[in-house]
Amino acid sequence: MYHSKIKGLGYYVPENVVTNEDLSKVMETNDEWIQERTGIQERRHVIRGEDTTTSMGVKAAKVAIERAGIAKEDIDFVIFATLSPDYYFPGPGVLVQRDLGLKTVGALDVRNQCSGFVYAISIADQYIKTGMYKNVLVIGSELHSTGLDMTTRGRGVSVIFGDGAGAAILSREEDLSKGILSTHLHSEGQHAEELSLIAPGMGKRWVTDIIADNDPNDESYYPYMNGQFVFKNAVVRFSEVINEGLQANNLQISDINMLVPHQANLRISQFIQQKFKLNDDQVYNNIQKYGNTTAASIPIALTEAWEKGKIKEGDLVVLAAFGSGFTWGSVIIRW
Ligand code: COA
């Protein structure tokens, strides 16, 4: 039995900055409303045609591979988390295998939205723990901007989300006091439609011809979110799953050196921070700059925190996510 540790981290965000002011030119919204409700000041949107979910993931992966000090030939498996794949199928995992020029290693796609990276880390951890793989490339990447309803009708969703990618190399660690200590995953499909994008899905195709009947007024082609319901569930589940992870390892809240929550909404992070009585140095947020990048948010935030020297060897680092499904999870790491 081994542990897995995060050996390299990287992220990539498109250069194109979209401010709240920019959004107010295409829909009825304003900087004050967005900042007060979400903490977001700006987000990145790809320049159309320049980047895809896969290409952003590949760019983030190249940085992570280099920092891990491994050759791409050393990668045994690829796990890609996204809700915004380039193609309906195949998923972006195989596109990364192709674009990075990896040998014919396995590639797995994870469909767990905002919890996607936490689920992907958990899967990679199991493969490494059992000795099946030594190095697993885990990517979270999202291209939201081309799929959002950028009119006043869609403002409750579209002001929140941004584009970007993050990646990690998980590698075998023989010192069992280090690395990922445990992971904890949950779901509650009862609330599946509360944060969802119904079309294009086979369920939708069953009742309508998706190609011929793609009516711009059909809101099922745009993401839907019951914002207040999501908020209420998020704060409860974040707290539960962080506590679950700490208890499983006989750790206390006071042992946390750095909590990197999924960047859903600054108000959610602040609520958790206050509830757990953590100070500003113990929680890392960057939603102000990038919006909610779904599966990419944790690896982007984790990479930034690490780059800024906020995570040191021996630190207890907690990752926690909640999102569409509903799904949620946590990862407890001794860095
Ligand atoms: N700009 C200006 N006004 C907006 C707006 C926008 N972008 N979006 C919605 N509004 C309006 C609404 O139309 C509504 O107007 P009304 O009172 O005249 O009907 C009013 O603002 C309040 O809308 P409501 O949806 O109740 O706002 P809220 O306080 O719940 O905030 C969210 C909305 C989405 C910011 C909030 O619910 C939230 O953050 N939820 C969690 C979302 C999340 O974390 N999602 C990701 C999970 S992984």
Quick gist of this model?
The chain is α/β, with parallel strands linked by helices and 335 residues long.
Task: Provide the fold topology.
Blueprint: E1 3-12, E2 17-19, H1 20-24, H2 31-38, E3 42-44, H3 53-68, E4 77-81, H4 92-99, E5 106-110, H5 116-129, E6 135-142, H6 155-158, E7 164-173, E8 179-187, E9 195-196, H7 202-207, E10 224-225, H8 227-248, E11 258-261, H9 266-275, H10 287-290, H11 297-307, E12 316-323, E13 327-334
Parallel strand pairs: 4-5, 4-6, 11-12
Antiparallel strand pairs: 1-7, 2-3, 6-7, 8-13, 9-10, 12-13
Helix pairs in contact: 3-4, 8-9
The structure holds coenzyme A.
Report on the architecture of this protein:
- The chain is α/β, with parallel strands linked by helices and 335 residues long.
- The chain folds into 2 domains: 3-173, Peroxisomal Thiolase, Chain A, domain 1; 179-334, 3-Layer(aba) Sandwich (Peroxisomal Thiolase, Chain A, domain 1).
- The protein is built from 11 helices and 13 strands.
- It has helices at residues 20-24, 31-38, 53-68, 92-99, 116-129, 155-158, 202-207, 227-248, 266-275, 287-290, 297-307; strands at residues 3-12, 17-19, 42-44, 77-81, 106-110, 135-142, 164-173, 179-187, 195-196, 224-225, 258-261, 316-323, 327-334.
- The protein has a 5-stranded mixed β-sheet with strand order 1-7-6-4-5, with helices on both faces. A 4-stranded mixed β-sheet has the order 8-13-12-11, sandwiched between helices.
- Helix 8 packs across helix 9.
- The two termini are 18 Å apart.
- The mean pLDDT is 95.
- Residues 29, 33-34, 37-38, 114, 155-156, 159, 225, 227-228, 230-231, 234, 264-265, 268, 292, 322-323 line the site of coenzyme A (COA).
